[in-house]
Amino acid sequence: MNVKRTFGTILTILGIIGLIYAAVGFVQNSEGAKSLIVFAVLGIIFFFTGIGLVKNTTDVAK
To answer: Where are the domains of the chain?
Structure first.
């Protein structure tokens, strides 16, 4: 089991959750716009970092 690939998957899932949370908050016109922006930015960072880890990690056959 590859730790980088697992960590990349976890980061991708956390990024998706952060983006969904921010999107729901924007749609509902939530009061805390600053916190929603922070969630959106962190979600984007986590998502693309996780995708990059999963994509660039090679599988080694044993």
So the answer is: 3-56
